[in-house]
Write a structure and sequence with these properties.
about 70 residues; two-stranded parallel sheet; 2 helices; globular
Length: about 70
C-alpha cells in the first residue's frame, strides 16, 4: 500500500496519493453533513463536507453498501 499511495495501511488518505488511483464513495455518504477520513497515519483523521471530499478525491459515487 505504501509503495502505491505513500500511506501505510490504516492511514490511507482519500487524497494526496503518489499516483492516480480509482476512488469510490457510497452514495449514502452524501446524506451526512460531515464525514471523517484517514489523514495519512493510523491515528490521524480529518473532517470534511461529503460533496467536497468526493470532488477532491475525484471519486465515483455509487451504491456500495448493502
Amino acid at each position: 500500500m505504501r509503495d502505491e499511495t505513500g500511506f501505510a495501511i490504516g492511514g490511507v488518505a482519500p487524497i494526496g496519493h503518489l499516483i492516480a488511483i480509482p476512488a469510490f464513495a457510497d452514495k449514502t455518504l452524501l446524506g451526512f453533513d460531515c464525514v471523517w477520513a484517514a489523514a495519512g497515519a493510523h491515528d490521524a483523521v480529518f473532517a470534511a463536507e461529503p460533496h467536497a471530499m468526493v470532488k477532491a478525491a475525484q471519486a465515483v459515487v455509487a451504491t456500495l453498501a448493502a
